[in-house]
Amino acid sequence: MKTKQAGITLIGFLIVLIVVGFFGYMAMKLVPAYAEYMGVTKAMNQIATSGVDGKSLDEIRRDLMFKMGFQYVDDATVKPKDITIDRSNGTRLRVAYDKQVPFIYNIDFLLHFDKSVPLHGNVSL
């Protein structure tokens, strides 16, 4: 009686290993940028819930940059010019920035992050 063997060959295993390794390396490069974005989001929510009555845009920027420091957000990632107040439909705190992550040789990932949260209170000019 003949039995038919089933399974993966060595070459097939190496191909699967290469594909998994490639996506694992990609995740190693991209996950820190998204973790940093989660820190930006958390700091923005803290500013929004604490209230901004009578604060100017510069004071809000200073507070947000201070809170992002506790969330391990790099100062080179989010610059003060990336923090704006949008008054088109209610008062909203908006942070929009780009992050360039080097990948392989001359291939980079360009990640664009844009988040806005509603502010409670009046922002002075």
TrEMBL record:
Q: Which Pfam families match?
A: DUF4845
Task: Give the UniProt keywords, A-Z.
Answer: Membrane, Transmembrane, Transmembrane helix
What residue intervals traverse the membrane? Answer: 6-28
Keyword Transmembrane in the entry? The reply is yes
Q: Which InterPro entries match?
A: DUF4845
Top-level taxon of origin = Bacteria
- Name-wise, this protein is DUF4845 domain-containing protein
This chain's source organism reads Fulvimonas yonginensis
Q: What is the lineage of its organism?
A: Bacteria, Pseudomonadati, Pseudomonadota, Gammaproteobacteria, Lysobacterales
